[in-house]
Amino acid sequence: MLARQAGISFRSVWIAGLLFSAALTSSCSDGRTPVVLYSPHGRDLLELVEQAYEATHPEIDIRWLDMGSQEVYDRVRSERANPQADVWFGGPDTILGRGAAEELLASFRPSWADHVPVESRHAGDHYFGLYRAVPLLLYNSAAISEADAPRDWEDLLDPRWKGKVVIRDPLASGTMRTAFGLILARSVAETGAEDAGFEWLRRLDAQTSDYVQNPALLFEKIVRQEGLVTIWELTDALLLAERGAPVSYSFPASGTPVIDDAIGLVAGAPHAEAARAFIDWVGSEEALSLVAREVFRLPARDDLPDGVLPEWAERALGEIRPADIDWQLVGERGQEWMRRWDREVRSKG
Q1: CA 36, CA 62: separation in Å to the nearest integer?
Q2: CA 127 from centroid of its chain's CA atoms
Q3: Using one digit for the tens of pLDDT, what is the confidence trace for 93-117?
Q4: pTM here?
Q5: Into which CATH architecture does domain 135-257+322-344 fall?
């Protein structure tokens, strides 16, 4: 049954995967050099940077594969003997940190490296914070008024939200892993152990109607009121609202883990020189201003002059309350915590 489903064998899937990778990395018939990005950033941002970069670098063909943060790590790791990607473009720095520790990333210091905070840089120059990702409380604004909306993490446990919370599967999502990591790291800081944090996650599980596999399904359920409340990220909340979706959001009052959304050069990248040039460009003032205006990305750089960032970004920077979180602990224990959550908490409530 598992070896063959709907007439498709594992061998067929494996061959298809090889052909897909070959198509991504093969040289272009028009003579351009391909630069392959593995990224969780989504079609909007990826198409934007593809078109903008190729417009000024006609010799380059930007190719990208969109997947969850954990999936990027898994894929780069599985291809370590024969790398197919050039750039690991996005994901929490805790995940890229695991990649660096396993020598999946090459040392490269882009021209803008000194303009991001020291805590946003890998000590060995294997990755650098590029954007800020901000988890928040997202809700259906047609069903929930601003006055009744959840304002902090604890509000998700209110009985009125029972069966109305929908969550992106944290095993595939860097955003959700980080949000869960905040709860568990706080538990360790306050009690010396993770037990209280896991009890909190059990209570959240009892409120949760579904764990969905990708952001598109998450948004669909919220818009259709198949779930009313979720934890997600600022960029997508703003994109959804801009497109007329009935959604709004709150920044958690007790603080949210502001994520360094990082970028790095894949070790053994097939097109390393071209990949370095792309990394230099994507962290430039020009590129950061473009993605802030068009697709709501907060830059990690702290040297941008007044007027570069749009009004929404300046407002968000004034409203966000960064949580005090032990990032080293989250990086070291995150994998173990997620395995325990999957084994002991998921769908047990």
Answers
A1: 6
A2: 15
A3: 999 999 999 999 999 999 999 999 9
A4: 0.85
A5: 3-Layer(aba) Sandwich (3.40)
